[in-house]
């Protein structure tokens, strides 16, 4: 048939009654021929007669090699029985480049027992262009088509337009090719029509809607999908015989069938490119019959229609993918994105490539869904894109192509080269290449590998690039410091900062300030870091804002840190710099944690986790999980604490992420403390607050001390708590954390040997909290003070602090702490904010709740006493009170009641 070749996916010329599932056409068939270039798909050519419009159709149905099952499925779904009229049913067809999607639609239209139309996506994307094209094909005149197109825009949409054209005619099959590439107005109208109830469809029309795999088909959810798979060996052999006229040498035929792997378009194009003497075996065939030229031809439309950044990223992924045996081309997300960043290729297009079905992303693995596409993308020309190295062209893998070979050197030149080494410009170029290769390695490790590997690679890159590419060397220095910071290695941080140049500017100020802070010289850190904050606040560059926010965090100015990171986030979004988002959100979440705004910290960490997954930054995801675990420990969501902490530790421990590991362990300890397991919480926190290489992260160690002191005092480890408090006092005096003086006073109150001294320290803590800027920590002090007053049998005085603490906890969504505050309020005889149900556990005191949980879990009185540092007699006394309050008589009843309460929670 004119206009088609076997490359159309098995569509050949001439009749073939064996493959015709429909009876002979009972009416005229028109095919609207349109040439389309989609935003993601390949060039699609309709079955026109060469004129570009609607033309006459050849008498016999075209041949579809190996598609009998799919064609029969389409016919059965559209026309289940001769007496069943078209009733608005919709069938979807999906096929990739060269797989015969358009050919199948054409054949289905030719075989349909009635009027049929095939319409492709209009080349000019204007509102309602698709609807006009289809309705014009149905209309007997142009005026009718225009009127119908106007009706399609009205309240009744497509149903009204069809009703004005179809009545009085036989059943109609409407085939829409490349539907996702149609204009949005038409897609919305057709989708609304398909999803409407049956009586509204009205017209005797059936729909066959086609798309490439991965493109969304927004049709009715129940619409069946017919996927075009690769051809069977028999189907491919039939296509080969038809394309070559049956004269292919058996050895060449077997090679073609093996290399084409059932892809009809690839097979047909390979046959077309081979001369007859190679096909018949007269002349030896080349080593690879399905070469890059074949794949470039078949996939040219798909690759050419991709956005430029999408094509470049696909080339980079193809370059780093390694074909696994029996599996698609595969690599790690972090490796591919690191290579892309090193080559200055935007990574934001990854989501679009995955959504389009061109790449498959599962966890940390990234794979091509089609191995032929991987080869085609890797071999695609770079369209003259200049590189960063002298304007030389770029290879398919994104690296600079080598220059043309020079003339052979003379003997004198060879002797000089041996004596002096490579010329300076050659040495410079090789040094830059080596430095950038080290950067690539560092990015890959920082994104998803051991962070100290990243530190080493960035450190070496900074040394190599220092004199050649100062800007890249500066980035490498601070990336090395960031990697060492995540690992909790102070010496490595200082070593990276020592690489900073002696010149002035904010870079030197940042290095000097951090060096002073890391060596515990806060007075010398304030001036340079304050300068970094001021300069960064006056700029709109995300990188400078991020650096300024980090400086503010080191200074303890969490309000400024949150503000600066919020601005950096807005700028990065505006500039579509997706690779920066996880890092910015990581810092923003930490600033919100330091400020006690846990709900906002959780929101930032949740968004950061999604951004980290989208950009393949596994290590950043671990940090976000740790923050989410800490937030959940405040809200009292035990399962979420366990889940997020487990994920953070699963990544953080093998990758050396000491910062994320410390946060996750801290979250688990806070959850245990809130659940009454003070001894277990103290044991978990003790290593985190100790100095030395086996302790917690240096920037978090002191922040966790107040929590450790509370757990240690409650579990009888007062000596350890007192030692930690004295070290905390020295740190609080540095002025790098505003809430620290108030928390120090609370720690002293918990450790005070006499009641009068305890009250005085609690009063001091509450006065200090007025300037601390952390409402959550103030509420914790109020709660501890109120609890102490109640246990001193001063319930009237205890109610005020407990009510204030409850209100603050509720505002902060700290439900775990709010529950404890309500229980303490009820123990004073006041209403606890929410009425207790008769069978609930809310009326128990916090100590009774702890004992009840342990007993319900199967612990004996002696085991409970050991866990809570009480005597067995005290445990027995509390347990009898639990039984009396809950009106139960046995441990079995207590276990059942606890299980019921947890199920309701």
From TrEMBL:
PROSITE patterns: HTH_LUXR_2. Residues 1-30, 379-427 are annotated as: Disordered. InterPro entries: Sig_transdc_resp-reg_C-effctor, TPR-like_helical_dom_sf, Tscrpt_reg_LuxR_C, WalR-like, WH-like_DNA-bd_sf. Residues 837-902 form the HTH luxR-type domain. Keywords: DNA-binding. CDD domains: LuxR_C_like (cd06170). It comes from the Bacteria. PANTHER family: TRANSCRIPTIONAL REGULATORY PROTEIN DESR (PTHR43214:SF42), TWO-COMPONENT RESPONSE REGULATOR (PTHR43214). This is Helix-turn-helix transcriptional regulator. The lineage of its organism: Bacteria, Bacillati, Actinomycetota, Actinomycetes, Kitasatosporales.
């Amino acid at each position: 048939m004119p206009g088609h070749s076997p490359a159309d996916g098995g569509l050949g010329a001439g009749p073939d009654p064996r493959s015709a599932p429909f009876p002979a056409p009972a009416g005229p068939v028109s095919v609207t021929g349109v040439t389309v270039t989609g935003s993601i798909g390949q060039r699609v050519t309709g079955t026109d007669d060469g004129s570009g419009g609607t033309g006459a159709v050849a008498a016999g149905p075209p041949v579809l090699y190996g598609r009998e099952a799919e064609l029969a499925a389409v016919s059965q779904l559209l026309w289940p029985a001769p007496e069943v009229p078209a009733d608005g049913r919709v069938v979807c067809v999906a096929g990739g480049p060269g797989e015969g999607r358009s050919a199948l639609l054409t054949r289905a239209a030719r075989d349909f027992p009635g009027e049929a139309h095939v319409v492709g996506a209009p080349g000019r994307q204007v509102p309602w262009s698709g609807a006009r094209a289809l309705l014009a094909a149905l209309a007997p005149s142009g005026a009718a088509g225009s009127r119908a197109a106007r009706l399609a825009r009205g309240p009744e949409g497509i149903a009204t337009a069809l009703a004005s054209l179809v009545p009085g005619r036989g059943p109609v099959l409407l085939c829409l090719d490349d539907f996702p590439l149609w204009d949005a107005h038409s897609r919305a109208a057709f989708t609304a029509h398909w999803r409407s109830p049956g009586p509204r469809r009205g017209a005797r029309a059936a729909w066959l809607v086609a798309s490439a795999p991965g493109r969304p088909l927004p049709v009715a959810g129940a619409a069946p999908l017919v996927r075009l798979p690769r051809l069977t060996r028999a189907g491919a052999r039939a296509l080969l015989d038809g394309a070559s006229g049956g004269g292919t040498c058996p050895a060449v035929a077997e090679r073609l069938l093996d290399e084409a792997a059932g892809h009809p378009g690839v097979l047909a194009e390979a046959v077309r490119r081979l001369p007859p003497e190679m096909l018949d075996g007269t002349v030896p065939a080349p080593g690879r019959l399905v070469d890059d030229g074949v794949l470039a031809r078949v996939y040219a439309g798909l690759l050419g229609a991709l956005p430029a950044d999408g094509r470049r990223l696909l080339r980079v992924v193809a370059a780093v993918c390694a074909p696994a045996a029996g599996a698609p081309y595969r690599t790690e997300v972090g490796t591919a994105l690191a290579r892309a960043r090193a080559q200055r290729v935007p990574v934001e297009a990854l989501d679009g490539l995955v959504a389009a079905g061109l790449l498959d992303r599962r966890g940390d693995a990234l794979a091509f869904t089609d191995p032929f596409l991987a080869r085609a993308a890797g071999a695609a020309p770079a369209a003259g894109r200049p590189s960063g190295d002298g304007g030389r062209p770029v290879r398919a893998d994104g690296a600079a192509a080598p220059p043309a070979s020079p003339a052979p050197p003379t003997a004198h030149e060879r002797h000089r080269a041996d004596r002096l080494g490579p010329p300076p410009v050659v040495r410079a170029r090789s040094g830059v290449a080596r430095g950038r290769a080290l950067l690539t390695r560092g990015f890959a490790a920082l994104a998803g590998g051991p962070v100290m590997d990243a530190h080493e690679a960035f450190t070496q890159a900074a040394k190599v690039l220092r004199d050649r590419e100062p800007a890249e060397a500066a980035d490498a220095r601070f990336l090395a410091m960031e990697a060492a910071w995540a690992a909790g290695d102070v010496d490595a941080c200082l070593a990276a900062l020592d690489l900073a140049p002696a010149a002035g500017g904010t870079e030197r100020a940042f290095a000097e300030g951090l060096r002073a802070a890391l060596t515990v010289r806060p007075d010398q850190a304030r001036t340079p870091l304050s300068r970094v904050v001021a300069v960064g606040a006056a700029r709109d560059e995300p990188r400078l804002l991020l650096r300024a926010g980090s400086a503010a965090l080191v200074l303890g100015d969490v309000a400024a840190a949150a503000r600066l990171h919020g601005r950096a986030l807005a700028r990065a979004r505006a500039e579509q710099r997706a690779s920066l988002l996880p890092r910015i959100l990581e810092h923003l979440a930490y600033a919100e944690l330091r400020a006690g705004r846990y709900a906002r910290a959780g929101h930032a960490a949740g968004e950061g986790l999604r951004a980290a997954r989208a950009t393949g930054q596994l290590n950043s995801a671990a940090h976000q999980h740790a923050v989410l675990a800490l937030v959940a420990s405040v809200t009292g969501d035990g399962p979420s604490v366990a889940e997020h902490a487990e994920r953070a530790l699963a990544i953080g421990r093998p990758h050396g992420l000491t910062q994320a590991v410390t946060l996750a362990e801290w979250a688990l300890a806070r959850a245990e403390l809130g659940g009454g397991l003070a001894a277990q919480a103290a044991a978990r926190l003790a290593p985190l607050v100790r100095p030395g290489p086996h302790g917690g992260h240096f920037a978090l160690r002191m922040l966790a001390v107040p929590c450790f002191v509370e757990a240690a005092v409650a579990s009888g480890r007062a000596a350890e708590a007192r030692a930690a408090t004295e070290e905390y006092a020295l740190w609080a005096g540095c002025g790098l954390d505003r809430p620290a003086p108030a928390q120090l006073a609370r720690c002293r109150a918990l450790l005070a040997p006499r009641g009068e001294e305890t009250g005085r320290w609690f009063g001091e803590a509450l006065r200090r909290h007025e300037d601390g800027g952390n409402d959550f920590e103030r509420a914790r002090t109020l709660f501890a003070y109120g609890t102490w007053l109640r246990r001193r049998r001063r319930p009237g005085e205890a109610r005020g602090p407990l009510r204030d603490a409850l209100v603050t906890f509720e505002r902060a969504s700290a439900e775990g702490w709010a529950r404890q505050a309500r229980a303490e309020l009820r123990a004073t005889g006041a209403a606890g904010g929410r009425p207790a149900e008769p069978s609930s556990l809310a009326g128990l005191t916090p100590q009774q709740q702890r004992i009840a949980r342990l007993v319900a879990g199967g612990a004996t009185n002696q085991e409970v006493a050991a866990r809570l540092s009480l005597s067995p007699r005290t445990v027995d006394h509390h347990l009898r009170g639990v039984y009396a309050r809950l009106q139960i008589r046995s441990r079995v009843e207590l276990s059942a009641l606890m299980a019921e309460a947890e199920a309701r929670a």
